[in-house]
Amino acid sequence: MTFLHTIIYGIVEGITEFLPISSTGHLILASKLLKITQTDFVKSFEIAIQLGAICSVVFLYWRRLFVDRAVLKRLIVAFVPTAIIGFIFYKIIKSIFLGSEKITLWALLVGGLFLIIFELVYKEKESAIEDMAGMTYKQAFFIGVCQSIAVVPGVSRAAATIIGGLMAGMKRKTIVEFSFLLAVPTMLAATGFDILKSAGNFNLSEFGYLASGFIVSFIVAIIAIKFLLSFIKSHTFITFGFYRIIIAIIFFWLAI
């Protein structure tokens, strides 16, 4: 891995973290295109680099995270299912899921189809929840359960939480912003746990790679967040569904 690779990774992460297309899946596919071997460090890098994108949420939504207690309580409830699943299956996720291109491609393909079908049948109710503080703890927990499915690379944490929120009766903009906020405890926990397990094996240059990837993903993610909030004002996620399918087919073809 070189510094150029970390910049590319940072751009990919920043663009894809909050879009319903799977940032982890794209990082795995990017490593294939760049011909980067899936070492333990690369797998840790693919997790840790997401911290830069997460910090962009803290930068933009710090008041919601640290001042609005009603929202904070619901974020904690939504975080619990993913924390439990991630802790229990950590070894499987890192040793099997993060190294499997086939799992990623199938998840992208099936997830894309599901996203298109869901959007075609979904109709937002007039009673949909407009304020994050207005959701029940039961709804928050359900969204967290949906998010936990995204431990499989290619599923997309953003897609899982957004669809879960729409199913739970939330307005599109509301669940998109809740998805942004839920990414903070989720990815902080995933990154912190992985670094705690692996940091002793990193050398100085590898920490430099992490820092450069962090900065790039932070800047690009701010742009991506603003784009998505503007996009959903007049669009559904069907476009992203087709994108996922096309990417999966292209990489299946390249594998053949």
Give a quick set of tags describing it.
about 260 residues; mainly alpha; single chain; about 75% helix
Q: Kindly name the structural category.
A: mainly alpha
What proportion of the residues is helical, as a percent range?
A: over 70%
* Mean pLDDT over all positions: 86
Question: Which shape, going by the Cα principal axes?
Answer: globular
Order of helices and strands: HHHHHHHHHHHH
Quote the beta fraction: under 5%
* Total number of beta strands: 0
Secondary structure tally, helices: 12
Summarize the main sheet.
Answer: none
Structural description of this entry:
With 256 residues, the chain is mostly helical. It has twelve helices and no strands.
Helices and strands in order:
Layout: H1 3-16, H2 23-33, H3 40-48, H4 50-66, H5 69-88, H6 90-95, H7 101-121, H8 137-148, H9 157-167, H10 172-198, H11 204-231, H12 238-255
Short description:
With 256 residues, the chain is an all-alpha fold.
